[in-house]
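Teaching note: in complex prediction, the entire set of molecules is handled at once rather than each chain in isolation. The prompt given to students was simply: 'Predict the structure of this complex.' The entities are:
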Amino acid sequence: MPAKEKPDDLREAIIETALAIIESDGLEKLSLRQVARQIGVSHQAPYKHFANRDHILAEVVQRTFDDFASYLDVHPTSDDPRADMAQMGRAYVQYALSHPTQYRLMFGTPLPDAQAFPEMMVSARHAFDLLKACIQRLPNYAQKSAQQIELDALFVWSTMHGLTSLLETQAMQTHALSAETPDTAIAHVLHRIGVALGVEFDSPPYN
Amino acid sequence: MPAKEKPDDLREAIIETALAIIESDGLEKLSLRQVARQIGVSHQAPYKHFANRDHILAEVVQRTFDDFASYLDVHPTSDDPRADMAQMGRAYVQYALSHPTQYRLMFGTPLPDAQAFPEMMVSARHAFDLLKACIQRLPNYAQKSAQQIELDALFVWSTMHGLTSLLETQAMQTHALSAETPDTAIAHVLHRIGVALGVEFDSPPYN
DNA sequence: CTCATTAAGTTGACAGTGTCTACTAAAGCA
DNA sequence: TGCTTTAGTAGACACTGTCAACTTAATGAG
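The expected output is the structure of the full assembly:
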């Protein structure tokens, strides 16, 4: 309970505090009253800036998507599109593993209804567009249709998302996979994606 | 509030009621008190059979995994391993889309700590083993190592899991992908998996 | 300047939650 | 007979999100 000076922009403070709580304790520990308490304001003050809990959550999710997109966008374009692609894949997993609560916030389920918060989804789309642009630069994708690229982006995204989900929940660590390091799994999945797309940007570190 | 006759096996009734609530209203609407109320028992009765909420949840999740595994196992072995594989993939997506709350329960995040409930994970592994067995029967997998199969199973599982997650959250429906039907995306992803594994069990329905 | 309106914040209440403690009733067993 | 365990109940506590009513402070029109 350190910060007690009431900020001039309460709305901003609410979102930042909510982000901080989610980052440290997870979404399920987030409560409006705790946020207000931490800012040093009455438990009803947030309601002057947000209609309800979901509205706060929607904006928090939106900012998390923005943060995620800029993380993916750090190493945008080199002269080797295949290296860019592999780099992006690793950045994806790296973000998910180093920001587990944020990643869960975006792709874990109890999101505020996507239909009701279109701006939230705009930020989500932006991250997806980065992947599409990356695929489009691949050597053998020069003359593919937009639909092809869209579908392959969906495929890549699915695979990366599924991989990180499984790695994070440790669902597979119970038995055999405990032997493999996550890095092996990541490298293998990236390799398989390359085979599927016909680019082979990485050779498998085994066999 | 129909059933008020107190069952002789309260423990069983608790889990079944919890499953029913989750199926109809989702995990976030589940409350121990509501369960007790619906069974017609005091709000503290469940605590005589479960230490806390997470213990109930763990058993519910375990049963959901079992149900999921048997769903995948409906069409076990034909004479064409590639057809089996494709069928399993479709069954996976089909389950996820027709049982969204159950699927979220298994792979959405706020699970009770996996480490603390090993039996829950045993059931999860079983479903994964079904996929491994399916891959192992593929024509070109006869003499691959167990690690290879494990890693490729991880790859396939990841992709299917990611695909269904994205389809379900409708994250991508906002813009361009609204044009494509889910079936197109499913077929495409299955095709890409085939390319990646070198089996090509499905031809793409376009191009 | 005055006064009505509005925004931002307050306190208090309500129903709902998970969980703790203490009680009762019944069953099993020495 | 009496003791202990089991399954259940009742009450309380600290929390939660949200509704309603109140107090300020600022703003802007006449």
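Point out the following to students. The longest helix of chain A spans residues 146-169. Chain A touches chain B through 58 residues (CB under 8 Å).
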